[in-house]
Amino acid sequence: DGFRAAAAAVDDPAALPRAAAELRDAVGTVTFPERVRDAVLGEYRRLGSGPVAVRSSATAEDSAGTSFAGMHETYNNVVGEDALLERIRDCWASLYGDRVIAYRASQRMDEEPVLAVVVQTQVASDRSGVMFTVDPSTGARDRLVIEAALGLGEVVVSGLVEPDTYIVAKDGLRLASVRVGRQSLRLVPGPGGSVEREDLSAADADARVLSDAEVIEVAELGLRVEAHYGEPQDTEWAYSGGRLWMLQSRPVTTLGGPSAASADDASPAEGPPVGSVLLRGLGA
């Protein structure tokens, strides 16, 4: 009832933030049932009680028709049992962010939402990024698009830096193009469960993030994930100490209709030619 009441207030700029805040405050008072608390902490101890990532996974999040990218909370480098429980509660509360409620209302999703929380061993990534196993801008399925940055991947998904962009042709896994971005900072795990911002030197800011061989290694992993799920994937990956990790995979939600078979075929009937730059800058 509280969610539906908040959703009904989406057109009221004063009522929506107030209703959403009341819902988040209510979640903040939740006490973990003893059996749930014991189960969570038991698994945390089984992971070694070290740093973990605490990630939200809501119903309908990044399904074929919707995308909640960046709306529900994810926390990196969470250390300690009390901090873990608090961050799980914070993930639950993120179901009732102003933007989340407004987006659900715009999609006519009026059912009470449900959110799971995933706790993963923290990958202290020195390089990370995202990868689409299809070109999300054209729908071309014969290429992969990889974006890469230094440090934790939050800088890419949140638009804090301009990442490198690598285009890989699936035919023979060939590196088709490289655009090196300029990165002024990186995020790294800090002491006591913190995440710290480090400014980069001019040399590091302008340096390429991945070698040709590493780009192909990331692309190979992307193809395996796509084959596993049987459809194009939007993934997050990371390198840590030379080892490649797949952090997350979900369906690509931006294709919106029949996909082009290849980049050459991806010529819309209206609008600018494929490949035209419409604007430049960092994502909001």
Automatic annotation (TrEMBL):
- Annotated catalysed reactions: pyruvate + ATP + H2O = phosphoenolpyruvate + AMP + phosphate + 2 H(+)
Gene3D superfamilies, alphabetized:
ATP-grasp fold, A domain, ATP-grasp fold, B domain
- What InterPro entries does the record point to? ATP_grasp_subdomain_1, PEP_synth, PPDK_AMP/ATP-bd
What is a biological process (GO) this protein takes part in?
A: gluconeogenesis
User: What GO molecular function annotations does the UniProt record carry, in alphabetical order?
Assistant: ATP binding; metal ion binding; pyruvate, water dikinase activity
State what protein this is by name: Phosphoenolpyruvate synthase
Q: Which family does it belong to?
A: Belongs to the PEP-utilizing enzyme family.
Keywords per UniProt:
ATP-binding, Kinase, Magnesium, Metal-binding, Nucleotide-binding, Pyruvate, Transferase
Q: From start to end residue, where is composition biased (Low complexity)?
A: 256-273
